[in-house]
Structures are given as structure tokens and as C-alpha cells.
Hints:
alpha+beta, Topoisomerase II, domain 5, Gyrase A, domain 2, Topoisomerase, domain 3, elongated
Amino acid sequence: MAEKIVTTEYSEEMQRSYMNYSMSVITARAIPDARDGLKPVQRRVLYDMSELKLGHDKPHRKSARIVGDTMGKYHPHGDSSIYDTLVVMSQSFKKGMALIDGHGNFGSIEGDGAAAMRYTEARLEKFAEEVYLKDLDKTVDFVPNYDETEKEPEVLPVRVPNLLINGAEGIAVGMSTSIPPHNLGEVIDAVKAYIANPEISMEELMKWMPGPDFPTGGIIANKKDLLQIYETGTGKIRLRGRVEVELGRRKSDKDKLIIKEIPYTMIGAGINKFLMDVAELAESKKLPDVTDISNQSSKEGIRIVLELKKDADVEKIKNILYKKTKLEDTYGVNMLAIADGRPETLNLRGILKNYLDFQYKNNTRKYQVLLEKEQEKKEIQEGLIAACDVIDLIIAVLRGSKSLKEARQCLTCGETEGIRFRTPELEKEARELHFTEKQATAILEMRLYRLIGLEILALEKEHKETLKKIREYSRILEDRSRMNQVILEDLEAIKEEFAMIRMTDLEDEKEAVYTEEPVQVQEVVFVMDRFGYCRLLDRSTYERNQETVETENVWTVRCMSTDRICLFTDTGNMLQVKAADIPMAKLRDRGQPLDNLSRFDGTKERVLFVSCQEQMQGKSLLFATEMGLVKRVPAEEFLTANRLVAATKLQEEDRLAAVRFAGEGDVVLQTAGGYFLRFSSEEISEMKKNSRGVRGIRLEPEDRLEALYLVQEDHTAVYKKKEIQLNRLRTAKRDGKGTKVRL
């Protein structure tokens, strides 16, 4: 068979393929379905656990078994995504209602990760088993799995608006969803109000469900904005942690600020970040009234303690914490879900409508199945009751039949040929029998004890109950108001068993107000000793003790208190520190380690050059690396607000050997092996900071560049205790070998 070649525009094919990929990610991975509020991986984990019979009253099963079974049957996208999903669904501090009961280390609110899946165990929570997985066989459609060897539910028959109760987080291609969790009882009340009046206003709905309810508690500080968020499906919620004041009982006891509830966005590493931010504020004197910070959180809950000085201004401290740390944070709401197979941003009414349409469809299917079962039961019961009334005739048919087939034909069609009857009258009566196939089967399988009087009465009572159920199911299917009543009764039962009290308060708090005291503009001197301790000295102290200061410290830089200190390290980075963040100290004070003020790592790098932004204006910097590369870079490239900047690009295993301001005249490069090369500084090309540079000197094997000098400024150099007069060195060209010093 000849191959068919299709000619197409490459860009169109790429665009079409990318759109197919993005829609697959949106609909099949990252965005939840508006009906059950679950992503495919969540749905598959819950369904697989129900298939494994891991009910709330059954023993826990290894997480690795659950993950492997889910991956092999339903979700072939890697075990890590499945296990991460299982872990999150078990974490009560992330979900409004946890769906999985985890046994073992399933992580913590402070950001500790869960143990490996081979160590942990899990089973379904009762809430998930009763509300998410009940009546699977009667309600939803099943579709083939990825390789068509199994069947899986298209959605789960969730009986509550899970999209609101547990919320959702997901990032797809070009879109994302972020739905906050809500209180189960309040959501059910809102559904009841919506059923009672589908035209209900958003303000009325919010009387029943006033806002999100985060499992971490805290405070929603912009209650007034919630109406707009629920009307549009998008917006921003301002979250605050709850801060309480604990007064010292005795005079010697310090007052304390206790944080027992945190913003939902602080879950994980946010708590450690908060502690570091508070410590930094205290060290920089922006929180001078905080004397100690401790994290006393435990399994019982969050407890972060800030000890205060006597007579501290608590309101001011709160405002600083809200303004300068993540104790107040923003939660972006985007209620995006898959509705009718398409991603759509839904408002509150849209979410409730999708949920109720799903419930009507599920309940219609459920009661249709139940009705058919009761009608089948009714048919059989009527056959048995009729058989009991003519039991002597039935026995005569059975005794006279040669085979089961003959007996069945007689019961269903009145066919008596081949059957021996004791009297013609019995044969005549037998010709009048017209039971259905199902009735005949039930009669033939009926046990003799059913002929006892009490058993016959029980059968008649059961028949009456069946007729009652048929009438009830038919009424539910025919009358929407009756179906509404069934849904409401179901929701009320769920609320009564599972609802919990609200955790998050809703308030309209004023914006935190904090005005930083302006930095006093003055001339100061930055000093850093050989151990990396930094401090600022006022100008008068420095000038009175200049000789002592410059002897004891490696670096001294005059600057203004509003300036930034720039430190270049041998790893090719430039660190920046605000002068205002460096402690003002007395002459004999040691100061702060550079590691605490910046991202400097004293175990892996060393400082080569220090300046300030004011001094760098209009100048150029010379860079030289250990492999002999040199370049000139305009200092303007380093005038940035970033605290860490890549100052140059280095080859593998290369490091910076020298950084300094460029000057007039010649430069001298010195190697560790004693080679000196003098050439004009004009031969060093001006380049961008992210370039490697040009070769300045040809190195011998195993040799490396050690220093860069300016002849007009440095005059002399020392090599192995021998003083070298730089101006006496022979002038050569860049990229030469240089002259070796004889000792």
C-alpha cells in the first residue's frame, strides 16, 4: 500500500498540536469538573480506594498499593502526582473536609513533607464514602480507562457542592483556577435557599453562605468585596492571621503577642519565612519592641509567640506585622471549572446551578433504577401470591410434568400436552394459567416453607410495601418539587452528621497603616573586618580613629546612610546591602555578619571588592579571572535594586581573581607562578557584565592569575616577600606570557 503524504503549513500544525495539548491539560488534569468538583486524578484515587474496599471501618492499606493500583488501572501519569494528591486529600489544614484518613507521616502545616508512600497507609474518610461514592452503580456513566481494559466513572456522584466545600487549585496552559474552601453547613444552607427560590439575589444567598471558611482560621479583612467576587467569580481576598495579646501575670513576666491562626496562604514554608521576616524587622530596629520570637506550634495547633518590651505599642506592632510580613496576605480567587466540557469562570449562582443540574440527573437515574427494581419485585410478588391461591393446581402440574420445560410452558402458556393430571378438571384449570416468565421462574424456585400461613401474610405485607415504594418513586420522578424535597432531606442529613463550626471570621478591617520613619541622611563609613562582620561608623568617629579603623578592617567605604553597599565576590556575584540595614555601631562594636545581611556564603566565597552606588556613578570596573580573562564593564550596569546580581560570566571551575575601578595608564597582571605582564589598560575591551572577557595573559599549565594592579595607583607589588617596582616592568602587549620574577 502506497504511503500518502499530506502537505501542511508547519506553523498551522504546531498551533493545532499545541491547542490540543493545552485543552488536554485543562480538561483532563488541572481544572476540576463543575459537577463533582474533582480533578481526574482525585476522582481516580477515590474510586480506586472504593474498589479496594478501603472504607472508613476497614483497616488502612499501604499508600504504595493504592498509588500503584490507581496508576496501573486509571491514571498512567506517574506515581508522584497520584501520591501528592492522596496526601493533600488527607490534610485537614488544606481541605475544608478531608476525604482520606491517613495513617503515618502525611506532612504538616509548617511545610514538612509526607513520608515516602512505602511508609504511610490510608483509607477513606466516612464523609468521602457516604457523600462522594454512594450509589455509584445507579447514578453516573462509566467510561473506558486509558487502555480500555477497565471502566471508570466519568464523574463521582458527589451529593454536596464539592467545588465550594473543598475549593480547588490548579495551573493549566494559559489559565488557572483558585477556589477557596467554604463551610459545609453554610454551603448546604445556601443550596436549600437556592432550591426554594432559583431567582434569589446574591445578597440573600450570602446571608446563608457569607464567605469562604479556611481550615487555618484567621480573618477575612475585606468582607465588603465578597459580594463582587461571588457575582463575577474573580477577585482578591485579604487574609489576616489572628493575633492575641497575652499580658504577663507578674511584673517580671513580659507581655506577649500570640498568633494561633495564620492566613491560608502561609501553609508550608510561609511560617518559617514569617519568623525570618519578624527577626529581620527586629534586628533592623523596625520592631524594636519585640525582644524574642519562638515557634511553639505542635500537633494541637499553631502557636507563634512574640515577647514584647514593657509598655510596647501593641497596635503599632500589629500594623507592622500586617504590612511587612505575610501575616496579612492576598488570596486570588478565580472560580474556573469545566462546565459542559468547556472551561468557564463561574459565579456562585453558576456553581450552584451546575451542582443542582447534576443532582437532578443523578436522582432521576437513581430512582429510575430503583423503580424498575420495585416493579420487577412487584411482578414476582404478584405471581407468588397468585400461585399460593392455586397451590394444589401448581403441585398437580409439577407432579404430572416430565421435565422442567414442560412445567414452565404450562405455567406461562397453559400448555398441558404431555402432562398427566389426576382429573380432567385439573387439566382444564391448568389451561387457564398465564404467569409471566419471571413469575414462573419464581414459582418453580419457591420453597415449601413459603406456604406457611405467616409466610403468606409476610409476602402480602411485602407486596404492599413494594406498591408504596413504586408510588413514591413514580412521584419523585414525575414531580420536581418532590425531587427537591428528597435532595433537601439528603443535604440536611449530611449537614447534621458532618457539619463543623466556622473557622474564619469575616470583617471589614481597615488597611494596616505603618509609616516608616525616614532614614536620617548623613555621611557614614562602612567597615568590614576579615571575619566578615559589618557595621557603620559615623564620620566623626571614623576620622578620629582612622588609622586604627583601617588597620583593623579589610574594607572601609565612605557613603551616605541612604546609599547601597556593593560587594563583589570571587564566585562572580555582586551582593547589595542597604546602608540603612547595616547596624550603626560604636568603635569597638563587632557588628553583624555579612551572611545575616545578604545572601553571602562565607564557606564558599570571599569578597574581592567593596564600593557604594554613589562612588560607582560614571566609572568603569576591571574584572580579572584566575584563568587569565579580563574585561572592562561600565559601572552603570550594576546600579540596580536587586540584592543579588550576576556580575560576570565564568567558565567552569574559573573564579574571579580581582575587581577594581578602571584608571588611566597601564595595568599589571600577576600570576601565582611569579609571572608579571604589563600592558596598556586601553587594550582591555569594554563589555557587558554577562560576557566572559578576553584573554589578558597566557598562563603556564597549573598556573593561575592572582592579582591585577594599576601602575599609576599601586606602584609596587610583593611576590614571595620580594618587592616589585611595577613602573620598572617592561611594557608588552595583552595576551602575552609576561616576565617571570627571579628571586
